[in-house]
Structure to design on (135 residues):
């Protein structure tokens, strides 16, 4: 699996110029979420389970904000272009969903390639386990 970031900090400076350009463009979104949504898995003692409700609420709030902006953008664009209100969402939203599905397909293909590379090791491990149980 490729590593694009140093360590586990996902807002760290990435490797490669393409990832750096997208990183710079997404700074307002990623950094505001990183600041406003606490990570319940991290802490000085590693035990911050009481932050799960806050994390859930802040995540829902960000989803609401993004949904509001998307609908607001669609409404204003529809008014500006003088179109009916049902035309642009029928074109714009499926296009966004198609992009998301394409990214999922690419990620699935990468995972399948990784699985094919590891398949021989997994078969050997299963054979060793099975043979140890017989004898």
């Amino acid at each position: 699996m490729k590593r694009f970031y140093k360590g586990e900090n996902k807002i760290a400076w990435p490797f490669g110029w393409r990832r750096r350009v997208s990183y710079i463009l997404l700074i307002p979104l990623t950094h505001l979420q990183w600041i406003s949504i606490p990570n319940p898995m991290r802490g000085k003692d590693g035990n911050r389970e009481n932050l799960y409700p806050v994390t859930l609420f802040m995540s829902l709030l960000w989803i609401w904000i993004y949904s509001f902006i998307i609908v607001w953008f669609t409404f204003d664009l529809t008014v500006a272009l003088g179109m009916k209100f049902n035309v642009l969402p029928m074109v714009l939203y499926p296009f966004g969903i198609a992009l998301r599905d394409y990214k999922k397909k690419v990620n699935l293909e990468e995972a399948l390639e990784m699985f094919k590379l590891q398949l021989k090791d997994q078969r050997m491990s299963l054979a060793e386990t099975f043979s140890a149980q017989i004898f």
